[in-house]
Write a structure and sequence with these properties.
The chain is of the alpha/beta class. It is about 45% helix and about 15% strand. Pathway: Lipid metabolism; butanoate metabolism.
C-alpha cells in the first residue's frame, strides 16, 4: 500500500484550508474544483496559508510537505489521486449540490473509499438517503481555519459504517487532530449552539442596543468567548453563516435560526467577512 493521500473537493475557503492542513502534515492531496479561476489561484493560496500556519506555529516546520495536485472533475481527481485514502467534500452548504457531487465521487472512486462531507449543518443521513454506498459517508466539521483549530466535530449518521469511522480516525491521527463524535441532526452540536448565538448577537446590533464592538467585548470579557460572536462570524464567512442558518431554520423551525436582517444585508452588499476584506469589521483587501 502506498502513501496515504486525500482528494479535497472545493477550492473555496474551507477546501483551501483543509488542503493546507493535509500537505502541511506531509501528505499528498488532490484539490478539485469546476471553477478554473479558483484552480488557477489554488497553489498560491495554499502556499500563503502554509506560510501563515508556520508563522503561527500551527503546523510543523520540520518534515516533508505533501504534494498538491490540481484537478477539474471527479474523474480527473480519481485518476490523479489513484487510490485516495480519503475523499473530502468541502463545497457550499447546499444539500442538493452536495448530493450530486457525492454521486459523481461514488461513480469514479473505488467502492469502500470513505467519503467525508465537510458540513456545518446538513444532517449526514439526509445526504446518505440520496447517494450510493451510504455506509461510506461520514460527516467531519472542519473549523476555519482548518490548520489552526485542533478539535473537529465528527458526525456519524445512522447509516455510516464502521469502516468509514475507522478511516476518519486514521485521517485525524495523520493530521494531528482530535475528533469528538456526535449524533446526527441539523447543526450537530457546534453550529446548533454557535450559529444561533451569532444570529442573536446580530439582532442585538440591529435593534440598536449595542455596537458590534461592545457585543464582542461583553462576550469576551464576561463569558470568555475567545473572539466574540461577530468577529467569529467574519471568520466563518457571513454568506456561509446565513446558508447554515437557513438549513437550521428550514429543518428545525426554530425562529432563533431565522437569519437576521443585518446578516442578510451584509451578504447582499458583499460584506462577507475576512475573505472579502469587510464584514462586521474592516480587514483591508483580501
Amino acid at each position: 500500500m502506498g502513501t496515504p493521500s486525500a482528494a479535497v473537493f472545493g477550492a473555496g475557503v474551507m477546501g483551501i484550508g483543509i488542503a493546507t492542513l493535509v500537505v502541511g502534515r506531509g501528505l499528498p492531496v488532490t484539490l478539485v474544483d469546476v471553477d478554473q479561476a479558483r484552480l488557477d489561484k489554488a497553489s498560491e493560496r495554499v502556499r500563503d496559508e502554509l506560510r501563515l500556519a508556520y508563522m503561527m506555529g500551527s503546523l510543523p516546520r520540520s518534515g516533508p510537505t505533501g504534494e498538491l495536485r490540481i484537478a477539474h472533475s471527479a474523474a480527473a481527481a480519481a485518476e490523479s489521486a489513484e487510490e485516495a485514502t480519503w475523499v473530502i467534500e468541502a463545497i457550499t452548504e447546499d444539500a442538493e449540490l452536495k448530493a450530486e457531487l457525492h454521486k459523481e465521487i461514488a461513480a469514479v472512486f473505488a467502492p469502500g473509499t470513505p467519503r467525508i462531507t465537510n458540513t456545518s449543518s446538513i444532517p449526514v443521513d439526509e445526504l446518505a438517503g440520496q447517494v450510493p454506498s451510504p455506509a461510506d459517508l461520514v460527516g467531519v466539521h472542519f473549523m476555519n481555519p482548518a490548520y489552526l483549530i485542533g478539535t473537529l466535530e465528527v458526525v456519524r449518521g445512522p447509516r455510516t459504517g464502521e469502516r468509514a469511522m475507522s478511516a476518519v480516525r486514521d485521517l485525524l491521527s495523520a493530521l494531528g487532530r482530535k475528533g469528538i463524535v456526535v449524533g446526527d441532526g441539523p447543526g450537530f452540536v457546534t453550529s446548533r449552539v454557535l450559529h444561533r448565538m451569532i444570529n442573536d448577537a446580530a439582532n442585538v446590533v440591529e435593534e440598536g442596543r449595542a455596537t458590534v464592538e461592545d457585543v464582542d467585548a461583553l462576550m469576551e470579557g464576561c463569558l470568555g468567548h475567545p473572539t466574540g460572536p461577530l468577529r467569529t462570524a467574519d471568520l466563518i464567512g457571513i454568506d456561509n453563516l446565513v446558508d447554515s442558518l437557513e438549513v437550521l431554520y428550514e429543518r428545525t423551525g426554530d425562529e432563533g435560526c431565522r437569519p437576521s436582517e443585518l446578516l442578510r444585508r451584509k451578504v447582499a452588499e458583499g460584506d462577507h467577512g475576512r475573505k472579502t476584506g469587510r464584514g462586521f469589521y474592516e480587514y483591508g483587501a483580501p
